[in-house]
């Protein structure tokens, strides 16, 4: 380690000045670095070896590290100022970081993590919460929030985070980048602050956590993996078994069928339809992981939460709280740090965890490992959503609830509790939020999984784009959306004084959605221009039936009735329009004019 450290040039850089850029869409100020970095520094790689030796495999790449990885001479902050205040600078650099630098990459800074790397939303009470470049009004995800943001914003080529319950996979999904969590025990844990030891390392033994990483490019994700995994060269093999968890995609608030179809078509194109299999994961886990029943009576908000993935996530969180308490409760009690309220509440819950609870969790993990091995064998991949819901809005109160923590990690728990590896892959957008899909392999299948993602990525992106375009076509649109599009076409025709064409579009909108007062009122306006007064009166009356406060409908019906000679009724319409909108000059002038003519 001493010789390795000697090759590292550690240069403390100036922190960014916090240049503020105001965006019109956001009420908060956005930092020039999106709030991703805690501090800038540089760890420079050694010189290239002379020919004919090959250059370092990561030459030319830059990366950032979450503030849980030690760097010689620097205090590791762990997302909490009181932790920084009470700890000395590290005496050596994390093995993972050293390996990457010696592999040719340049480390350019350390990034924000959730308080004590414990959260999952990305919210940070001590620093500004990093801004999600893919969806600025949404949370970036945690615990490795800054690392995901640094990659999404293109400040670095890749970055390091840690992942116990989803700390890499969730922010990767929220920020629309690739995120890889390796199998337990495949990457060195030396020089990383522990959070939940047994969820982060091999055989669930008491070691420190391991690293996951983010990238935008699957080839870079794979190159980093080959350096960190240090596995011997082997011929790339294709998957023989791709299992799509249909029931999981049906639970999504985003278009799950669109995602699963994109995966299906990409797999069929590259590997053939014969390797595809569809599975009800809920039924499979219920059968293969019987110990989940030990938590089946768990309730939240008065309702029983008994889905297998939710129960699996619940067991995972019990372990995380228990092990976090073992690692850090002594320091918390001694220093009385200023903690995120969620951590305080979780520590209170950790005190109530019994040995029986822990034994049950251990049984679930053993059963999960066997279940995933049986499902996938050596050359199989499980396809699941990365997260069940879109990123929460910035400042949302829900992120402090245990329910949110369970929901956000429900699918992540499959790999975490089985020891397998998982990669989150972006799959487009829905409602201006990134959507993603995850691929899971059994423990030890890391290189196989990274190679498969490298192979399938381009076709998956192509199929996801095609699926998005298809869902945007008229056949796939909801009737309400199609009706709005027809209305807008009618408005454009009206502006161009093409009255009959406008009536046609408004009629189309009404056929698609007959409960909109606006559509009838707009068609009434076009009928008035065509001097179709009876039709204008009928459409205005229908609009008023649907919306008693539609001022324009009263004005248009009043005009139609005036032209039909129904003066008394017309005066009543104009007067009622004035009641609804006292400053409406057209209603006032029309009512006064008719009153003078017909007192």
TrEMBL record:
Keywords: Membrane, Repeat, TPR repeat, Transmembrane, Transmembrane helix. Gene3D superfamilies: Amidase signature (AS) domain, Tetratricopeptide repeat domain. Residues 469-480 have a biased composition (Polar residues). One of its GO terms (cellular component) is chloroplast outer membrane. This is Amidase domain-containing protein. The keyword Transmembrane applies. It comes from Solanum lycopersicum. Residues 55-203, 355-450 form the Amidase domain. The chain crosses the membrane at residues 6-23. Residues 481-491 have a biased composition (Basic and acidic residues). Residues 469-491 are annotated as: Disordered. TPR repeats lie at residues 551-584.
């Amino acid at each position: 380690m001493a010789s390795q450290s000697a090759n590292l040039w550690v240069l403390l850089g100036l922190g960014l000045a916090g240049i503020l850029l105001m965006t019109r869409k956001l009420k908060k100020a956005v930092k020039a670095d999106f709030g991703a970095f805690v501090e800038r520094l540089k760890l420079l790689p050694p010189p290239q070896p002379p020919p004919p030796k090959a250059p370092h495999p990561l030459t030319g790449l830059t990366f950032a590290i979450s503030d849980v990885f030690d760097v010689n001479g620097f205090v590791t902050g762990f997302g909490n100022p009181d932790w920084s205040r009470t700890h000395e600078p590290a005496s050596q650099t994390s093995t993972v970081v050293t390996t990457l630098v010696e592999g040719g990459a340049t480390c350019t800074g350390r990034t924000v993590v959730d308080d004590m790397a414990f959260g999952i939303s990305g919210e940070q009470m001590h620093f500004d919460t990093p801004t999600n470049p893919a969806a600025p009004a949404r949370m970036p995800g945690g615990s490795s929030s800054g690392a995901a943001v640094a990659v999404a914003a293109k400040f670095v080529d890749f970055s390091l985070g840690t992942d116990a319950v989803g700390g890499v996979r969730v922010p990767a999904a929220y920020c629309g980048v690739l995120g890889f969590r390796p199998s337990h025990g495949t990457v060195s844990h030396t020089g990383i602050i522990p959070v939940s030891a047994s969820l982060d390392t091999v055989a669930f033994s008491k070691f420190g956590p391991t690293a996951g990483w983010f990238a935008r490019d699957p080839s870079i994700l794979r190159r980093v993996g080959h350096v960190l995994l240090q596995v011997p060269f082997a011929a790339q093999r294709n998957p023989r078994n791709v299992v799509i968890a249909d029931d999981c995609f049906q639970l999504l608030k985003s278009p799950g069928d669109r995602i699963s179809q994109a995966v299906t078509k990409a797999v069929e194109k590259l590997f053939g339809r014969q390797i595809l299999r569809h599975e009800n994961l809920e039924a499979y886990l219920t059968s293969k992981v019987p110990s989940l029943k030990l938590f089946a009576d768990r309730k939240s908000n008065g309702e029983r939460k008994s889905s297998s993935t939710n129960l699996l996530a619940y067991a995972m969180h019990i372990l995380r709280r228990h092990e976090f308490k073992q690692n850090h409760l002594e320091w918390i009690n001694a220093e009385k740090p200023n903690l995120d309220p969620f951590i305080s509440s979780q520590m209170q819950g950790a005190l109530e965890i019994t040995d029986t609870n822990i034994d049950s969790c251990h049984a679930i993990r053993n059963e999960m490992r066997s279940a995933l091995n049986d499902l996938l064998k050596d050359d199989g991949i499980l396809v699941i959503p990365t997260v069940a819901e879109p990123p929460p809005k910035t400042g949302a109160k829900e992120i402090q609830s245990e329910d949110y923590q369970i929901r956000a990690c429900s699918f992540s728990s499959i790999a975490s509790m089985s020891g397998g590896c998982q990669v989150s892959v972006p799959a487009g957008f829905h409602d201006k939020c990134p959507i993603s899909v995850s691929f899971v392999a059994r423990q030890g299948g890391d290189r196989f999984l990274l190679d498969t993602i490298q192979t399938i990525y381009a076709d998956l992106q192509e199929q996801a784009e095609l699926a998005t375009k298809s869902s945007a076509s008229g056949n796939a649109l909801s009737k309400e959306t199609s009706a709005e599009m027809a209305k807008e076409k009618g408005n454009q025709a009206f502006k161009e004084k093409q009255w009959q064409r406008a009536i046609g579009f408004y009629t189309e909108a009404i056929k698609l959605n007959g409960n909109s007062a606006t559509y009838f009122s707009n068609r009434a306006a076009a009928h008035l221009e065509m001097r179709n007064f009876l039709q204008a009166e009928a459409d205005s009356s229908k609009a008023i039936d649907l919306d008693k406060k539609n001022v324009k409908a009263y004005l248009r019906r009043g005009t139609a009735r005036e032209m039909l000679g129904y003066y008394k009724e017309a005066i009543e319409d104009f007067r009622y329009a004035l009641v609804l909108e006292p400053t409406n000059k057209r209603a006032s002038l029309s009512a006064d004019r008719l009153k003078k003519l017909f007192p």
